C-alpha cells in the first residue's frame, strides 16, 4: 500500500538529521543535486539523476547544497516484493542506481498514475499502487548483478516454498504451524526448513512472521479495526502479543503508528510546510519549511 507521496522541488533550509522511516522509501532525484547521509555529521557527495530505496529501520537523511532547490520524487510503501526486500537487506538496508533520461521519463509516468490515485482514491486504486510498486522494483533492479543471476534451484523447490507462503497467507487467522504448512506441500517440517533456507535464505518462522506483520500494517492503515481484531485476523492470540511482535520489528507500537497516520490527515500541515519524516519519533521533526 502506498503510504506517502511527494513529487516536486524542495530545499532543506534547516538541514535534516538521520532518522529511520516506518515504511520502505523510494527516492529519486529528477533534476538538481542531492546526497544521502547515513550518519549525522557525514558529508555525502551530491549526485544528479539517482534512484534509491531504503528499508524501514535504515537511518538516513537527505542533503542538498543549502542554496538551490532540486526535484525529488519520494514514495513510501508498507512493503516491497521479493527479491527486492532480501537484496536490500543483504546490502545493509539500501540500494541505489543512476537514472538515464528514459528512466526518468518512466519514473514520472509511474508517479503521475500513483499521484492521481493517492489524492483521489477509487475502488481500483490498490491495484494501481501494486502495479506502481512492481514497476519501481523492476526499475531499481535493472542492471543489478544479483537480479540477473539464474536460479540455482529446481522449479519444484521454488514452487513448494511459494505454495507454502501462499497457503499460510490464506489461513493467516489460524496461525498454522510449520508442521501444518509442510503437510500441505507434502514434505516434512525439516525438509521445508531446508527449502526455505535455500530458496529465501530465511526460516519459515521468519517469513511467516513477516507475512503476519505486513498484513497487520495493511489493516492498520486502511481500516478502523481495533488492535484485538487485527491481532485475531493476523493469527496472534492476543493484542499484547501482536504489539510486542510489532514493536520488536518497528521499535514503536502499532497504536503510535496509527495515531501519527491519522494525525497527518486530521491536522494537515500549513501551506509551505512539508512532512520531513512521516512518522518520526522526534516531534520537532514533523515539519520543516520547504
Structure report:
This protein has helices at residues 84-90, 101-119, 125-141, 155-170, 178-184, 189-200, 204-222, 227-233, 239-250, 254-266, and strands at 2-10, 24-31, 35-37, 50-54, 61-63, 70-77, 94-98, 273-275, 287-289. By secondary structure, the protein is α+β, with helices and mostly antiparallel strands. The chain folds into 2 domains: 2-149 and 267-289, Sandwich (Jelly Rolls), CATH 2.60.120.280; 155-251, Arc Repressor Mutant, subunit A. The strands form 3 sheets. The protein has a 5-stranded antiparallel β-sheet with strand order 1-6-2-4-7. A two-stranded antiparallel ribbon has the order 3-5. Strands 8-9 form a two-stranded antiparallel ribbon. The two termini are 26 Å apart. InterPro entries: AraC_XylS_family_regulators, Homeodomain-like_sf, HTH_AraC, HTH_AraC-typ_CS, RmlC_Cupin_sf.
Amino acid at each position: 500500500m502506498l503510504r506517502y507521496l511527494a513529487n516536486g522541488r524542495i530545499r532543506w533550509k534547516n538541514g535534516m538529521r538521520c532518522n529511520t522511516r516506518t515504511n520502505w522509501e523510494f527516492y529519486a532525484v529528477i533534476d538538481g543535486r542531492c546526497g544521502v547521509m547515513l550518519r549525522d555529521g557525514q558529508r555525502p557527495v551530491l549526485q544528479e539523476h539517482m534512484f534509491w530505496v531504503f528499508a524501514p529501520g535504515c537511518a538516513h537523511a537527505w542533503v542538498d547544497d543549502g542554496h538551490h532547490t532540486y526535484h525529488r520524487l519520494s514514495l513510501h510503501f508498507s512493503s516491497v516484493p521479493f527479491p527486492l526486500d532480501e537484496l536490500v537487506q543483504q546490502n545493509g538496508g539500501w540500494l541505489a542506481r543512476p537514472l538515464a533520461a528514459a528512466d526518468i521519463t518512466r519514473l514520472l509516468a509511474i508517479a503521475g498514475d500513483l499521484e492521481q490515485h493517492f489524492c483521489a482514491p477509487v475502488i481500483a486504486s490498490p491495484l494501481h499502487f501494486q502495479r506502481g510498486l512492481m514497476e519501481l522494483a523492476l526499475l531499481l533492479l535493472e542492471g543489478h548483478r544479483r537480479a540477473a543471476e539464474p536460479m540455482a534451484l529446481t522449479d519444484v523447490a521454488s514452487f513448494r516454498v511459494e505454495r507454502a507462503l501462499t497457503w499460510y497467507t490464506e489461513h493467516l487467522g489460524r496461525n498454522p504451524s510449520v508442521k501444518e504448512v509442510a503437510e500441505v506441500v507434502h514434505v516434512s517440517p525439516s525438509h521445508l526448513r531446508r527449502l526455505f533456507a535455500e530458496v529465501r535464505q530465511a526460516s519459515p518462522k521468519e517469513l511467516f512472521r513477516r507475512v503476519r506483520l505486513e498484513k497487520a500494517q495493511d489493516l492498520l492503515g486502511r481500516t478502523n479495526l481495533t488492535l484485538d481484531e487485527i491481532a485475531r485476523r493476523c493469527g496472534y492470540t492476543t493484542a499484547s502479543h501482536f504489539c510486542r511482535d510489532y514493536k520488536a520489528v518497528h521499535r514503536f507500537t502499532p497504536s503510535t503508528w496509527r495515531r501519527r497516520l491519522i494525525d497527518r490527515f486530521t491536522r494537515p500541515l500549513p501551506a509551505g510546510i512539508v512532512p520531513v519524516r512521516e512518522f518520526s519519533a522526534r516531534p520537532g521533526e514533523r515539519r520543516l519549511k520547504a
